[in-house]
């Protein structure tokens, strides 16, 4: 299990442990209990994405109880947006002009100019920070203008560095100019 997954599970367990709902026996939880708990979480100030994360851990646990014949139905098997308000805000990427302006500022700034190359690469490749931090020279194919991403550098909650596989598998490598490499160039 990845350390981020484990940390996410611990986050969920800590929230459940503090809730009255967390004291219920699994076979006693009904659909109305599940919905009421999620509504209470939102009323208590938890955001939609946090509740979505909680349900993403709890629902499979209840499904396991169904599979083990402890429950007849999974009480968390419903559309979340039908129960609580989706208050999450869609993030908007910066415009090309904002990107150029930011890069120009970074390049010309006495302090931040040392980070220009890294930020330029991040903007133009779509790499995650952890993937960028895990790069080695051997993974950069300068002639082909390609970067091979087969691992990432992560830091655990205990401040240890670990190497892990990337979050997603690349379908088609993308070069820094944003063009897909289909092997024909």
| Unreliable runs | 181-185
What is the H/E order? HHHHHHEEEE
Estimate what percentage of residues fall within beta strands: 5-15%
Shape category: elongated
Tell me about the largest β-sheet.
2 strands, antiparallel
The value of Rg in angstroms is 22 Å
- Alpha-beta classification: mainly alpha
Count of extended strands? 4
Q: Can you give the helix content as a percent range?
A: 40-55%
Spatial gap, N to C terminus: 39 Å
Number of helices: 6
Outline:
The chain has 6 helices and 4 strands; from the N terminus they run H-H-H-H-H-H-E-E-E-E. It has 185 residues and is mainly alpha-helical. The radius of gyration is 22 Å and the shape is elongated.
Account of the 3D structure:
Mean pLDDT is 86; it is low at 181-185. The chain is mostly helical and 185 residues long. Helix 4 (96-108) runs antiparallel to helix 5 (116-125). The strands form two sheets. It has a two-stranded antiparallel sheet with strand order 1-2. The protein has a two-stranded antiparallel ribbon with strand order 3-4. The chain is built from six helices and four strands, in the order H-H-H-H-H-H-E-E-E-E.
Key phrases:
185 residues; disordered C terminus; mainly alpha; two-stranded antiparallel sheet; two-stranded antiparallel ribbon
Topology:
Layout: H1 3-18, H2 31-43, H3 48-67, H4 96-108, H5 116-125, H6 129-133, E1 140-141, E2 146-147, E3 152-155, E4 161-164
Antiparallel strand pairs: 1-2, 3-4
């Amino acid at each position: 299990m990845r350390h981020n997954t484990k940390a996410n599970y611990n986050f969920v367990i800590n929230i459940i442990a503090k809730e009255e709902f967390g004291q219920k026996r699994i076979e006693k939880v009904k659909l109305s209990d599940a919905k009421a708990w999620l509504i209470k979480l939102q009323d208590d100030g938890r955001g939609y994405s946090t509740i979505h994360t909680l349900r993403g851990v709890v629902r499979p646990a209840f499904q396991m109880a169904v599979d083990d014949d402890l429950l007849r139905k999974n009480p968390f098997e419903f559309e979340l947006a039908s129960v609580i308000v989706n208050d999450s805000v869609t993030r908007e990427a910066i415009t090309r002009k904002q990107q150029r302006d930011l890069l120009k500022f970074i390049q010309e700034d006495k302090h931040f100019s040392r980070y220009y190359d890294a930020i330029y690469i991040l903007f133009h490749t779509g790499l995650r920070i952890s993937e960028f931090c895990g790069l080695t020279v051997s993974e950069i194919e300068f002639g082909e203008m390609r970067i091979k991403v087969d691992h990432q550098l992560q830091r655990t909650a205990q401040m240890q560095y670990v190497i892990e596989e990337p979050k997603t598998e690349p379908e088609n490598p993308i070069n820094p100019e944003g063009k897909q490499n289909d092997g024909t160039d």
